[in-house]
Amino acid sequence: xxxxxxxxxxxxxxxxxxxxxxxxxxxxxxxxxxxxxxxxxxxxxxxxxxxxxxxxxxxxxxxxxxxxxxxxxxxxxxxxxxxxxxxxxxxxxxxxxxxxxxxxxxxxxxxxxxxxxxxxxxxxxxxxxxxxxxxxxxxxxxxxxxxxxxxxxxxxxxxxxxxxxxxxxxxxxxxxxxxxxxxxxxxxxxxxxxxxxxxxxxxxxxxxxxxxxxxxxxxxxxxxxxxxxxxxxxxxxxxxxxxxxxxxxxxxxxxxxxxxxxxxxxxxxxxxxxxxxxxxxxxxxxxxxxxxxxxxxxxxxxxxxxxxxxxxxxxxxxxxxxxx
Length: 324
Prior knowledge:
4-stranded mixed beta sheet; alpha/beta; 6-stranded mixed beta sheet; single chain
């Protein structure tokens, strides 16, 4: 970290650390999504519910669109208490809490219903607290849909179609391993730089969910979207333990209840966003392909071997699979 950046973070400490103003407290929430994204709408819903429950004593102030940095930077601000709440992908969180790699195993969830049951289960609650040793406490999961491949100039209908393609991935070891097993060339690039990277041919394609493919306008550059749905990596709403510990027991209860309700609300707006995004990209000329998922599942099944020496992770995987 540069000296300039470090000084900037220290300056934010006084500004953003769970401020108490007169008879109300302000919780600062930052994320990298634009204000049209369904996850942002869920955060607005969280703020409304929290204000209602607390009688205006707890207020959420949202900083969207990467105003305070990318996901990793926001996590670091949470850890030092300079920011209260953020949203990150489990794929990014795995760099801080390694057990979150489990969510990036291809086809670990049977379907959307199964993933929701896992989030709401005791296994899900266990995951949310795994970041506490790293000063990060999970509040809830947000559905981030299924991630699929999209490309500028080539239809991806089998894993062999990925050979020779540079595919943008998140800065996640699991995402890198998955694309490598499928025969592609994984290229980590920040989300904010991806549109330009696609335009300039730095990468040939990427992988993400439908609403993000739409809201990022990547469909303007990439005209082939393949519904292989290789992973369903959730988003996590996190509060820094520095901020959590400043809250009273009653304030914590209000916040957790509001977070739980926002997660249920988010699933509804997410499903609506998926349908809307699909219609828009088709109207924009994107060719949508529905490949045989089994070929992708078979090619990536060896990824689970990465966990064979990790008894705790293997137990978590088995618990996820056992949930009906």
